[in-house]
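Researcher: I need the complex structure. Ligand is GLP. Inputs:
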Amino acid sequence: MRIIRTKNYEDMSKKAADLIASVVLLKPNCVLGLATGSSPIGTYDNLVKMYEDGNLDFSQVRSVNLDEYKGLPRTNEQSYYYFMHEHLFSRVNIDPKNTNLPDGMEENSRKACKKYDKIIASMGGVDMQLLGLGHDGHIGFNEPNTEFDKTTHCVNLTQMTIEANKRFFNSIDEVPKQAYTMGVGTIMAAKMVIMVVSGKDKAKILKKAFFGPVTPEVPASILQFHPNFVLVADEDALSLVK
Ligand code: GLP
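Model: Output:
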């Protein structure tokens, strides 16, 4: 595990974007595993800036996203499909045909998950997986559990996650209770994993995840075993780590 300590959110976003840009430069048709949430927004802004300045080309890049709410149509502003279009896809020259997210409107969970795993396999796996960190240690929507889920599956979101995500909805009742998420096994199979973490509110869980025991009760902790894991975190998030 490598830790890149940054001054603040802006600095974290710039450094994470530089790392991702290097992946794209080295392999123009790479498979980027992408994430949603507030943590990667600045990273995407920096990637867009590099594209606008003519320094980065997404024309051959392929992408798979970590997760999607079950039951939200793509047109819903809170769907992760909508988020990705808003923050990245519509702002760079990535071919929409090369972007993938789980199908949140597929009611049959088995079907939705199998289909998504097939897509990931057909792309030859993920070259770089970008992650945020949930307050309970979740990655994607892999919530604390008694075991690590390997492949894409349907999850019941924990109360903590529903609470944390309610800020994006009009009321807590509107927050979906289920989601489809890539499994921890697929995340661990990515050639490189970059996690962005910012803010004092993440300090406790960051310490627990990366300086505590590896356990499915803190899903992110398994990244301690990843051979090419880079944690890009700001001083606030690292404030409990010496
Ligand atoms: C959601 C997403 C995760 C994300 C997490 C943290 O639950 N499914 O992928 O990492 O939120 O979000 P934030 O970056 O806004 O703290």
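Model: Summary of the prediction. The chain has one domain: 2-181+201-227.
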